[in-house]
Known about the structure:
By secondary structure, the chain is α/β, with parallel strands linked by helices. Helices cover 41% and strands 22% of the residues. The protein contains ten helices and twelve strands. The protein has helices at residues 3-15, 18-25, 29-43, 59-86, 102-116, 129-138, 199-207, 226-234, 244-247, 282-294, and strands at 48-50, 55-57, 93-98, 122-127, 143-147, 155-170, 191-194, 220-223, 239-243, 257-261, 268-276, 301-302. The strands form two sheets. Strands 3, 4, 5, 6, 7, 8, 9, 10, 11 and 12 form a ten-stranded mixed β-sheet that branches. Strand 7, helix 7 and strand 8 form a beta-alpha-beta unit. It starts with a helix and ends with a strand. The relative contact order is 0.15.
Amino acid sequence: MTLTDLRYLVALARERHFGHAAERCNVSQPTLSVAIKKLEDELAVTLFERSAADVKITDIGARIVAQAEKVLLEAGQIKELATAGRDPLSGPLKLGVIYTIGPYLLPHLIPRVHQAAPSMPLLIQENYTARLAESLKRGDLDVIVIALPFEEPGIVTQAVYDEPFRVLMPTGHPWENDSSIPAKRLAEEQLLLLGAGNCFRDQVLEVCPLCRPGEGLQRTLEGSSLETIRHMVATGAGVTVLPSTAAAPIPGGNPLLTVRPFEAPEPFRRIALAWRVTYPRSGAIDVIRQAILASPLDGVRPINPR
């Protein structure tokens, strides 16, 4: 049994397709198939049920794959330790960012990281919190930028900044005459939200519980991204809530949109970095944090580390 065999095993468990798993591992399909069969023979168990249409993992196979993922993660730490010993700011850093942060943070973050650590390219993945968490635990990512609360075994978090929410409305809307908007008034309007499964959607519904579908008089519409929702508001489809960085003025302005703050106490989300407690390149994480804090993010309030 080799680490390469375990990599093939984990790849097949994730892809559930021999061809796709082989492509992921950059080997031929016969090479991967032979390795999996050799591993099954060595362990004297069936790891996968094979059919013409599908590849299903067995119960014992799932348990072995879980252990294989841990072994590969620990083996990867050897290279990380060596890199950290030479220079923690040398070598790629795999960074994950949730969808509602990436477009507004990354344009500022990337040049600042490059200036501070020119030998540390960023390999970036945008995704939902749950998927980023799984990738972080597997070792596919080194550090992620997420919104709290976030709790996972073996993962440490560090709050970086608080980001207030803003109300976005079409220009000419009656609320335009108000200097701030009470959260409960959102239930009076057609509210545009992100789709189910996005943590920012849940945070908005916590601000205005009456806005939950079926609980208020108003209807809700959904968009696939904050930018899509911004465009929908500009057409007059309704109002929405955005984090302050997403509600910041677009270069050149947009005469079709008006932004207002919430009435105090202002709702906000807390943004944090998260990484495995065993991750050895603490200097690299410090660079990411400092680059975030140095970024001109509209309305955010930095949090000093304890």
